[in-house]
Amino acid sequence: MTSRTSDEWLADLRVADDRRESALADLRAIILRGLPFALAGKLSPDNPAFEALTQDVTQETLLKVLAHLDTFEGRSLFTTWVQKIAVREALGELKRRRWRDVPLPEMAESGESDAPMREMADPAPRPEALAERNDLLQRFNRMVSEELTGKQRRVVELLALQGLSVEAAAGQLQIKPNALYKLMFDARARLRKRLEREGLTPAQILSVFEGGAG
Q1: Distance CA 141, CA 40 (A)
Q2: How far apart, in whole angstroms, are the C-alpha atoms of residue 99 and residue 92?
Q3: pLDDT tens for residues 164-208?
Q4: Alpha carbon distance 152, 144 (integer Å)
Q5: For 53-105, how does the pLDDT look when each residue is reduced to its tens digit (9 = 90+)?
Q6: Where are the alpha helices (DSSP H) in the chain?
Q7: Three-state SS for 9?
Q8: CA angle 161, 132, 148 (to 5 degrees)
Q9: pLDDT band of 46, cuts 50, 70, 90
Q10: How far apart are CA 118 and CA 121, in angstroms?
Q11: Could you give phi then psi for residue 118, rounded to 5 degrees?
Q12: Domains and their CATH numbers in the chain
C-alpha cells in the first residue's frame, strides 16, 4: 500500500485517472482494516451480517469522502479523518439495522407507542401507498437501465437482489473482488447522482424494497 501525506491523498482523489483508483483502493483497505476495532463489542466479525455491513459502510464512507474533500481542514491525518467518518457511518448503520430487525413483541415491551407498530404491521397497504411504491419502483428500474452499464447492473442484481457474497458474485462474473468493488462503487455513485437530480433519497428507494412493491 502506498504511503501518502494528507496533501497527496487529496491530490490523488481529485484526479480522474489511475491515481484516484489506486487511492480509493488503498482507502478501502484502511477502512476495512479499522472497522473490526470500531465495532468491537457491538458486532462480532463472526456474525454473518458483519461482512455485508462493513462492505456497505466502506462504500458509503468513500462516497462521502469524495463528496466532502473540500471540508478536510488538516487538523488530523487525512486517514484519521476518513476513519472517523467510517466509524460514524458504521455505528449509524448498525443502529438502523438493529431497529429494522427488532421483533414486534420486543418493540411492544419497550414502552413505545403502538401507533407505529400498527402502521408497520398493516398487511394491506392503502391503494395510494401501493401506487406510490409502484411508481418509485418503475423510476428506479429506469434509472438503473439508463445510468448503469451491463456489468454494473449484473453486480447490483447479484449483490443486492440475489444476496450473494462478494466472493460468490465475483466468481460468477469471473473477476477479482477488487474489480467487483469498483463496479459497485461506480454504480452507487451514478445512482446517487441520478437520485439527487430526480429529487429522491436513497431512503425512499429502500422503502420500496423493504415494504414491497406489490
Answers
A1: 38
A2: 11
A3: 777 888 888 898 887 888 888 888 888 888 888 888 777 767 666
A4: 9
A5: 888 889 889 998 998 999 998 888 999 999 999 999 988 887 776 644 444 33
A6: 6-13, 18-38, 49-67, 78-101, 104-109, 114-121, 127-147, 150-156, 166-173, 177-197, 202-211
A7: helix
A8: 40
A9: confident
A10: 5
A11: -65, -35
A12: 6-101 (1.10.1740), 126-211 (1.10.10.10)
Distance between CA 41 and CA 167 in Å, rounded? Answer: 26
Amino acid identity for residue 171 in this structure: G
How many residues can be counted in the chain?
214
**pLDDT tens for residues 137-155?**
778 888 888 888 988 888 8
Q: How far is CA 107 from CA 4, 99, 124, 175, 196, in A?
A: 48, 9, 21, 43, 34
Helix (H/G/I), strand (E/B), else coil: 116: helix
Q: How far apart are CA 19 and CA 27, in angstroms?
A: 12
Contact 149, 179 (CB under 8 A): no
- One-letter identity of residue 138: Q
